[in-house]
Amino acid sequence: MEKVDATITDAKICKISDLWERKPKGLQFNDTDALIITAKTEDEKTIKETFYFCLKPDGTFNVDTVSRNGSHVRRQKLADFLKHYKMTDTIKGYKISEDVEKWKGKSVKVVPYKDSGYIHVP
């Protein structure tokens, strides 16, 4: 798949309970928050990516979970995103809630697919 450059136009953290009345299948009890990133390509295609995790009261999150289920994989993908696009060098202690607004204007690689696509996270 071809990767193209895009720019983050919006990034926000929402409670999953604000997005849906009932959690979608596959999300676990410890997936309580969603990081929604919107990126726009040069040809004006908009791509949204959602990362699920559990935001701690101090604004950080843990990659490790009690169980090694889908929650751990989702959090690892978020950690890989943050490191790959140089949002932070270290995940431990990174206050994602404080920096999320600073991501607007940063470049990312996206893979367009039909009417949507996804952000490339190696």
What is the compact description of this entry?
This protein is of the alpha+beta class and 122 residues long.
Task: State the main characteristics.
alpha+beta, 122 residues, 5 strands, 33% strand
Fold and architecture overview:
With 122 residues, the protein is of the alpha+beta class. The protein has one domain (4-119). The chain is built from 3 helices and 5 strands; from the N terminus they run βαββααββ. It has helices at 16-19, 70-84, 96-99, and strands spanning 4-15, 33-41, 46-53, 107-113, 116-119. Strands 3-2-1-4-5 form a 5-stranded antiparallel β-sheet. The longest helix has 15 residues, at 70-84. The radius of gyration is 14 Å and the shape is globular. The model has no long low-confidence stretch (mean pLDDT 91).
Structural class: alpha+beta
Record the strand order, biggest sheet.
3-2-1-4-5
Q: Roughly what fraction of the amino acids lie in strands?
A: 25-35%
**Mean pLDDT across all residues, rounded?**
91
Write down the Rg.
14 Å
Tally of domains: 1
Total number of helices:
3
Spatial shape: globular
Number of strands: 5
The major pleated sheet works out as: 5 strands, antiparallel
Q: What order do the helices and strands follow?
A: EHEEHHEE
